[in-house]
TrEMBL record:
InterPro entries: Alkaline_phosphatase_core_sf (IPR017850), Sulfatase_N (IPR000917). GO terms for molecular function: metal ion binding; sulfuric ester hydrolase activity. Keywords: Hydrolase, Metal-binding. It comes from Mesorhizobium delmotii. One of its GO terms (cellular component) is cytoplasm. This is Sulfatase. Residues 19-396 form the Sulfatase N-terminal domain.
Length: 536
């Protein structure tokens, strides 16, 4: 059932019931890597088919990195400054609502396939609870149908049952097949893994969703969240996707003449370039990412493109199955990611820091009841915190005013919303509570290991804590973000304006859980946020 699914015009969702909701995240998918967005190399026919019936948001940005902080923004509708999930392993405060709890309060049974990377609030658990030993917990409100955390043990067991030797475990299962005999080649190749395209983690997770979908009653609305690991590293993919793209194809890398030149641009860049180990992206590889040559980075990028196409093929299976279940006309679909991927830009892989390459992510929203804007694309700035209020709005619920995001429904209705943001914002926290590495390196405290970004069409301003110098990029002259003009007197008015706008943004969005309420002689007036639902 793989391949492209051509979707035809559909009838409106029935008015006597709520729609189904299908929320799909593909981890570490870079925003421009969609053929619907005009990428000259990557082919994503099934994501494109969804965009043809929905709305493609071209300037969509994650709120934080890595996975746990990024997903906290998506699930809660709150910026990192309010949800306070700073790193993988930072607990999510139990007082915060989220989209799963809200959906449950509306009568859905939100069902998870994959993972949410949520660390539970330790104040709600006994000291010896095993859930306190992993950041890969489940977002409160979800029923788990198939958990698939990064160790991928359920998938490994499934492989074993199919006769595939999965004894290597994670991450070694993702080495090229010819390395499993004990020979390790540190060079980057496109050799496939031991599993086929029908046996990949994405194929396994899709199969579990399709089985569950077949059990659903036609007249009972459902809410499903598929959380795919692809195209997250390790960078390896089965045939034919491993050779689908020529490493020589693709845009030029955005970077300075050398990694040493990059490191001189800012103390944080020097620190981050020294941290990145090849083994985090290709199991068994030795050395620093920064020392890979252009040919290696291009081969990795070709594999990354192949991983995107592999997960896109799984999207085609999903579209077909929802259609076959006679549910397509009744289903809202949201396709997005948590954060993006540097993919060789600035001699880096992975995510974090402040570059667009880490935060520009895809977003396609399709609501069968809203056909006016079908096939449209939006170039306004949208953010991960917009997903929760959008889904609530599409389900007929008032968006709680304490949320930081804004509903995207006006764009789906082909109208221009009032007072829409003129910039994107994101945050990154590089504290290391467990070992204090960053704190020692910079000589600052954990509260100071952070940065905040305001990005307009013309400029990007990055403000660091702990006295680290700021950054300012003139994006009209410097799309590659290579020249810091923060200290240039000619740009001083711009720097001051953006610093003031960043400060105003933070002041406006400080925690509003109780600040929008007032006790009066007539009782509570205004809005009180609580668990669940979002609204008081």
């Amino acid at each position: 059932m793989s391949g492209t699914f051509s979707m035809k015009d559909t009838a409106l969702v029935r008015k006597d019931r709520r729609p189904n909701v299908l929320l799909i995240t593909c981890d570490q998918w870079r925003g421009e890597c969609l053929s619907a967005a005009g990428h000259k190399v990557v082919r994503t026919p099934n994501a494109d088919a969804l965009a043809a019936e929905g709305v493609l948001f071209r300037q969509h940005y994650g709120g934080a990195a890595p996975c746990s902080p990024a997903r906290a923004c998506l699930y809660t509708g709150l910026y990192q400054m309010n949800n306070r999930v700073c790193r993988n392993g930072t607990p999510l405060d139990a007082r915060h609502g989220n989209i799963a709890l809200s959906a449950r309060s509306l009568g859905y049974d939100p069902t998870l396939f994959g993972y949410t990377d949520v660390s539970p609030d330790p104040r709600t658990l006994a000291p010896g609870d095993p859930r306190l030993k992993s950041y890969e917990g489940v977002l409160p409100g979800f029923t788990v149908r198939q958990l698939l955390p990064e160790h991928q043990k359920p998938w490994l067991s499934w492989l074993k049952a199919r006769g595939i030797d999965s004894g290597a475990g994670f991450p070694d299962i993702h080495r090229p097949a010819d390395e499993h005999g004990g020979t390790t080649d540190s060079a980057v190749t496109n050799a496939p893994p031991v599993y086929s395209k029908h046996e990949s983690p994405a194929a396994f997770l899709t199969g579990e969703f399709l089985r569950w979908l077949g059990e659903q009653e036609r007249d009972t609305p459902w809410f499903a969240h598929l959380s795919f690991l692809s195209p997250h590293p390790p960078f390896i993919v089965p045939e034919p996707y491993n050779s689908m793209y020529d490493p020589a194809e693709g845009p030029a890398f955005h970077r300075a003449v050398s990694w040493q030149a990059e490191a001189e641009c800012h103390p944080y860049l020097a620190y981050n370039l020294n941290l990145q180990e090849r083994s985090n992206f290709r199991p068994g590889a030795e050395g620093k990412v920064r020392d890979w040559g252009d040919d290696d980075f291009r081969r990795i990028r070709a594999l990354y493109y192949g991983m995107i196409s592999e997960v896109d093929a799984q999207l085609g299976r999903i579209w077909q199955a929802v259609k076959a279940a006679d549910a397509w006309d009744d289903t809202i679909v949201v396709l997005t990611s948590d954060h993006a991927e540097m993919m060789g830009d600035h001699y880096m892989l992975g995510k974090g820091g402040f570059f667009d390459g880490s935060y520009h992510i895809p977003l396609i929203v399709r609501d069968p009841r809203r056909r006016k804007a079908a096939g449209a694309s939006v170039d306004r700035f949208t953010e991960a915190v917009d997903i929760a209020p959008t889904l609530l709005d599409l389900l007929g619920e008032e968006t709680p005013p304490h949320l930081d995001g804004q509903s995207l429904k006006p764009f789906l209705d082909a109208t221009e919303p009032d007072n829409w943001r003129e910039a994107a914002h994101w945050e990154f926290d590089f504290r290391s509570i467990a070992d204090g590495h960053a704190e020692r390196h910079f000589g600052i405290g954990p509260r100071q290991c952070n940065l905040a970004v305001i990005r307009t069409k013309e400029f990007k301003y990055v403000h660091f804590g702990g006295g680290l110098p700021p950054l300012l990029f003139d994006l009209e002259q410097d799309r590659d973000e290579l020249t810091n003009v923060a200290a240039d007197p000619a740009y001083l008015p711009v720097r001051l304006e953006l610093a003031e706008r960043l400060l105003a943004w933070r002041a406006e969005h400080l925690d509003q859980s109780l600040a929008l309420a007032e006790l009066t002689e007539d009782g509570v007036v205004g809005h009180v946020a609580g668990l669940p639902p979002f609204q008081s």
